[in-house]
UniProtKB/TrEMBL annotation:
Pfam families: MFS_1
Basic and acidic residues composition bias: residue spans: 320-333
Source organism superkingdom: Eukaryota
Subcellular location, record wording: Membrane
Phylogenetic lineage: Eukaryota, Haptista, Haptophyta, Prymnesiophyceae, Isochrysidales
InterPro entries found in the cross-reference section: MFS, MFS_Riboflavin_Transporter, MFS_trans_sf
Origin species: Chrysotila carterae
Protein name: Major facilitator superfamily (MFS) profile domain-containing protein
Length: 351
């Protein structure tokens, strides 16, 4: 197997450097913010414009010590969501490999009539325009579904549609069926999942929306380059040349296995990227579908245990009642302390 060519290595290195720079910048940001706050506080104290307060200073120092940890955890989840967005757009950008795949398409799938000896331009050239139309149809649905079921489930729905559309297209016997599966189903999945990484990325990094958009869209740009090379290696590993615009029969026989492999790769990339999408804790949003399932899964402990939802007795009160009954059973009139005194005795015994 030959080594990876330099043009293939360069985009991957660029993508890794971009993600690493974003992670390092977000790791240093809380420290810089904390340092600036401390400098401003010292300046006000030295000038005499602020009187130091022990309680207030302790509270501020406590908040300052805990703030970087929370922001570091948030930035880590945000960077993972950013990486997931790149993976989703790697799957979305694969639609631009159709010009290369069209040359390996079996002849009977290239025309509406199914005639393998058709003349003129193949009708299969309309596959990519149909994908774009389906994508534009699905893009308004993405934000609407996100308000109803959240960014993760919305991106997951689009990811499954992309993977299933390409995989099922391997069994298509006519161009009409192929267009419905590859163009319509795959295109709608692209439109639904396309905007979800931008939505979550802007919520995690509201002051760096340009960096977020550029990092995510890089997956769309490099996708066609990578998958063009991969698809050619899978269906034509010997690099056979076409004779009179026709390849040998073994090339066409590998068409279904190529689509199944590509569908598995696209679906895996998009599903993993969708699972990495999340909202920051500061984003307060209500999703009706998620709220419905959370309510339906809420445990009904009172009904399961066969008990009434009434307020239980306090521990010291129950113990006091039990000791009173034991004293009466022995025939002696026990002198029991009040519940408050009994609670104090229990605390002293524990110490």
């Amino acid at each position: 197997m030959r080594a990876m060519s330099p043009p293939l290595v360069l985009p991957l290195l660029l993508l890794l450097c971009t993600c690493g720079a974003a992670a390092e910048d977000n790791r240093r940001q809380p420290r810089l913010a904390l340092r600036s706050k401390k400098d401003a506080e010292l300046t006000r104290l030295r000038s005499g414009s602020t009187v130091p307060s022990t309680t207030l200073t302790a509270a501020r120092l406590g908040a300052a010590q805990t703030a970087p940890v929370v922001q570091q955890e948030s930035s880590r989840a945000g960077v993972l969501g950013l990486l997931g967005g790149v993976m989703i757009h790697l799957a979305c950008g694969s639609m631009y490999t159709w010009g290369n795949l069209l040359s390996y398409m079996p002849p009977h799938l290239k025309y509406w009539s199914g005639d393998a000896s058709g003349k003129g331009l193949p009708d299969a050239q309309l596959v990519l325009p149909f994908i774009l139309v389906s994508q534009m149809t699905g893009m308004p649905l993405g934000p609407m579904l996100e308000k109803f079921m959240g960014p993760r489930l919305t991106a997951l729905l689009g990811a499954l549609m992309m993977g299933c559309g390409v995989t099922l297209a391997a069994s298509a016997k006519t161009l009409k069926h192929f267009v419905l599966l590859w163009s319509v189903m795959f295109g709608l999945g692209v439109g639904i999942a396309y905007q979800q990484p931008f939505i979550t990325g802007a919520r995690w990094f509201p002051k760096k929306k340009g960096m977020v958009t550029g990092a995510i869209i890089s997956g769309l740009g490099v996708s066609a380059f990578l998958f063009n090379i991969l698809s050619t290696k899978l269906i034509n590993p010997k690099n056979l040349e076409a004779v009179n615009d026709a390849f040998p029969p073994e090339i066409y026989a590998s068409w279904p296995s190529l689509l199944r492999t590509l569908g598995l790769i696209y679906g895996t990339l998009a599903v993993v990227g969708a699972l990495l999408q999340s909202n920051p804790n500061s984003h307060d949003a209500k999703y009706p579908l998620l709220d419905y399932f959370s309510r339906s899964r809420a445990p009904h402990t009172s009904a399961a245990r066969g008990t009434s939802p009434s307020t239980p007795k306090a521990p010291h009160a129950a113990l006091h009642a039990r000791e009173t009954e034991e004293g009466r059973g022995d025939g002696a009139r026990a002198e029991t302390p009040p519940p408050q005194q009994h609670a104090e005795e229990e605390e002293e015994a524990e110490e």
